[in-house]
Amino acid sequence: MSRPSGGFRDVAAPKGSRSEPEVEEAYERLVTEGHQRLDRPLLPLLSTGLLGGVDVAVGVLIYLVVEARTGSSLLASMAFTIGFVALLLAKSELFTENFLVPVISVVARSGTVVQLVRLWAVTLAANLVGGFAMAGMIVVALPDVHEAAVKAGSHYAHLGVSWRSFFLAVLAGAVITLLTRMQHATESLGVQVVPAVLMSFVLVGAQLFHSVLDSILMFAGLLTGRADYGYLDWLGALGWSVFGNLVGGLVLVTGIRLLRVPHRVAESRETDEVG
What we know:
Helix 3 runs antiparallel to helix 8, helix 6 crosses helix 9 (211-223) and helix 9 runs antiparallel to helix 10. With 275 residues, the protein is an all-alpha fold. The radius of gyration is 19 Å and the shape is globular. The protein has one domain: Up-down Bundle (Glycerol uptake facilitator protein). The protein is 75% helix and 0% strand. The longest helix is centred in the N-terminal third of the chain and has 29 residues, at 42-70.
């Protein structure tokens, strides 16, 4: 989970809203960090993506253990938040974290669409590889969680293509992008932990449809050899959830964020055209 060298603050203006200079400064910092993410070499991009899959899988591990021993999905969801705290503190990266900062950079003409697609594709693939490896170790090391893994994986594998599953994916994308937005509102690592815990609990407790997290749960179920779904079911669920996550993150959070600085977006385009 990449962190900016200097986060921006939503400091209340005297009339209860942020002043124009603060919004401008926040926008500039997002553009700068987004450019740095988009411009990273392949090896660092792969490493942060692999570690992102590992970190989320740690959350899956404790989720399955608590679910198996207590039968409470809410308690298990609370335990899962460890995975997102690890993601923050280890500075690794999740595919859906890249729906705000690098996108703003591309809109500001500080990066290209090709770079953005590369970032998304490499991070998603690395997340899935790291998550699959961890799912295999979880299944071998903890046979007591097999039933819980099959149950959780089956739920997401059989959501199918429907308005319900689409909106579950849209909400998941919005929640994670909002998490990113909240963490960029402060430079305090201690404060950044708060949204990591709260929003990941929302994600798992509400059983939202998240491409990477739910893939790891499906992997765990598949690797037990007892799942009532197959890899094609997982692939279909992945494609549908990625689409919904993109809509939720880009439209509900990033798009609205850009409405705060429409003139800066227009200026960036004009500069690009002149250049």
